[in-house]
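Ticket reopened. Same input as before:
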Amino acid sequence: MVEKNDSKVFIGKKKAMDYVMAAMIVLSKKPVRLLARGRSISRAVDVAEILRNKFLKGSDYGEILINTETLNNTDGTNTNISSIEIEILPPKK
Amino acid sequence: MVEKNDSKVFIGKKKAMDYVMAAMIVLSKKPVRLLARGRSISRAVDVAEILRNKFLKGSDYGEILINTETLNNTDGTNTNISSIEIEILPPKK
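Engineering reply: fixed in the latest deploy. New output:
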């Protein structure tokens, strides 16, 4: 995971619009990174597209990273889960 | 959508492994693009990670594109749906 000055918004199981609002607040000042795992990945992509097409026209994608994270289950086994990281850059002024 | 010589694999509702196999066949010769819409986006990311980590070590991501497609419903309304396009490059020999 790249460490930068970007703020992160973790996408979970709430409605897409909740995360759009959270990301908007960050994007007024600096780039934002949307992070999601597993089934929430599609929601992260929805949030990114809503931001870019409806709320902040002119904002653009930065890095898009895909990775696998290993979770340790309580019974000692491991589960691999895919993750995505979508960087959104604010509109150029 | 970028037009290149890449072959495309459309990710739908089947098991991830079915698409991994389809993509493997293409990747033996040239880059492949995984395409998915809506809820299948998470599955496309899974397929990409399985390919890269288990079956074709050394393969890497090319372009990752996120877009919105507009579908025309039978009742005349439109639905916006997010889509993703993940390019995977075969391992360098």
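Chain B touches chain A through 19 residues (CB under 8 Å). Helices of chain B lie at 16-27, 41-55. Please confirm and we'll close it.
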